[in-house]
Amino acid sequence: MRRYLSICVKLYICVILLAQIMSLSHNERMQSDTNKILIVDDDPDIREMLSELLDEEGFQTQSVSDPVSIDAAIAQFGPDLILLDLMLPNESGLTICQRLRTRIATPIIMVTAKASEIDRVVGLEIGADDYITKPFSKRELIARVRAVLRRGAHELKVQQSMFAFRDLFIDLDSRTLKTVAGELIPLTSAEFDLLACFVGAPQKVLSRHHLLRTVLRRKSDLFDRSVDTLVSRLRKKIERPEDDEKIIATIRQQGYLFTPKVEPAAQ
């Protein structure tokens, strides 16, 4: 009887150890696929709250409290997304976003206590991919984070990946836009998604509602000017003052029209 109990105990211990090993292996695999999020906020309570909420959803987080630490954190941590507070000491979130956009295309979500439209519009104009206003729920935070990450990782499932319009070339696989001379035109994740949407439906009017839902993954809102701001940013990068016809034309009370003819380009 004692021998039987001893065998049972040993078998039980082996099962427990095997389960722990399998769980550890699974967690390591999950960790390797985890998106990294950099939190920039001077309030320690906010940093802790955001870290806990994101950690619970399987994200890997790192947080910094001041603008001086951002560049080093980006270089060492390599974030897939940045949550950037608007009100920071010494340097505002808007100027930080503008500065970062000259160097990296990492998606940026502005976190702000200001609810006015002008603050949101300015943030989007200088390169932010989205915004979230304090106070916010966990559900809203996670939804916005995942939506922006999906935009950045989205791949259009088409055989042809390179297209030409005017004197520009867009590569949907590498998510790049170049001039005929080979010069790279830097685009944010949201700007590229908007351009890809236009390229996929040239010379066809696309409504603000369609663009808001397709590109920004948000429900239509009569007062949401995010699409208009994004179009304005894209225009500044692909249109020239001397052009006789705008690449993106505004169609009154309907939406936007991508005017050039789009043709497949050599792979």
UniProtKB/TrEMBL annotation:
Keyword DNA-binding: yes
DNA-binding region: 160-260
In-chain residues carrying the UniProt-annotated modification 4-aspartylphosphate: 85
Swiss-Prot/TrEMBL keywords: DNA-binding, Phosphoprotein, Transcription, Transcription regulation, Two-component regulatory system
SMART domains: REC, Trans_reg_C
Domain Response regulatory as annotated: residue spans: 36-149
Name of this protein: Two-component system, OmpR family, response regulator
Signal peptide start-end: none
Stretches assigned to the OmpR/PhoB-type domain: 160-260
